[in-house]
Amino acid sequence: MAMGSPERVSDVWSIVHTERAALIHDLEGLDDKQWEQPSLCEGWTVHDVVAHLSDSARTTRLGFVVGLARARFDFHRQNAHGVARERGDSPRETLARLRRAASRTSTPPAPLDSRIVEQVVHGEDIRRPLGLTRLYPRDAVVRAIRLQARTPASFGGAKELVAPLRLTATDAEVSIGDGLEVTGPALSLLLAIMGRRVALNDLDGQGADALRRPA
């Protein structure tokens, strides 16, 4: 089961802080081998994703712009710099850094719901390879899908990918687009449009077949 309570999440930071705390709890039980497990985020281990979340939690609007300029306006390079900065010499050190940043409300210059997207998607990047599960608030996942469906790929979204599709969740009241049908759990829809191919097995419809084709 992908999601928990259907109640609306009215406060972005309350859900973000709850998800950070839940992830920290899950991370506390990992051994060193699990920390070096490849995540769903291509090229990053679980340890790398945690370092990225710590870096992102500390990022301010001004800091993001300065960091992007230093990375010569390359988002991937900027993210790599952040991982290197926040990844400690040991998993325990990196986890301590995330714990210290968990209550922050700073954010880069992006829609506030992007903080929800980050916690849910990167939470699954970590949990799924480790066989861990999390029940996410239904409204949080729906809001994440809606944001990514209208955000261009150049800003980390999936607008172009979603354009020829119709996304319909089987466990939430969300239907986006008027193209080829893609149906499945809302969490799997979100992960699929964010490029996590492992979620494609949860989806049905002609649109799902199109998503399964090699890019």
Secondary structure layout plus pairing:
Blueprint (H helix, E strand, L loop, with lengths): L11 H16 L4 H4 L10 H13 L2 H10 L4 H12 L4 H11 L12 H17 L7 H13 L8 H4 L2 E5 L5 E2 L3 E5 L1 H8 L12 H7 L3
Helix pairs in contact: 1-7, 3-5, 3-6, 3-7, 7-8, 8-10
Q: Summarize this, please?
A:
The protein has helices spanning 12-27, 32-35, 46-58, 61-70, 75-86, 91-101, 114-130, 138-150, 159-162, 186-193, 206-212; strands at residues 165-169, 175-176, 180-184.
Structure characteristics:
single chain; 215 residues; mainly alpha; 3-stranded mixed β-sheet; 53% helix; 6% strand; globular
Task: Describe the protein's architecture and organization.
- The structure is a single chain.
- The chain has 215 residues and is mainly alpha-helical.
- The chain is 53% helix and 6% strand.
- It has eleven helices and three strands, in the order αααααααααβββαα.
- The chain has a three-stranded mixed sheet with strand order 2-1-3.
- A hairpin with a 5-residue loop joins strand 1 and strand 2 (175-176).
- Helix 3 packs parallel to helix 6 (91-101) and helix 8 (138-150) runs parallel beside helix 10 (186-193).
- The protein is globular and about 45 Å long.
- The protein starts with 11 loop residues before the first helix and ends with a helix.
- 41% of the residues are buried.
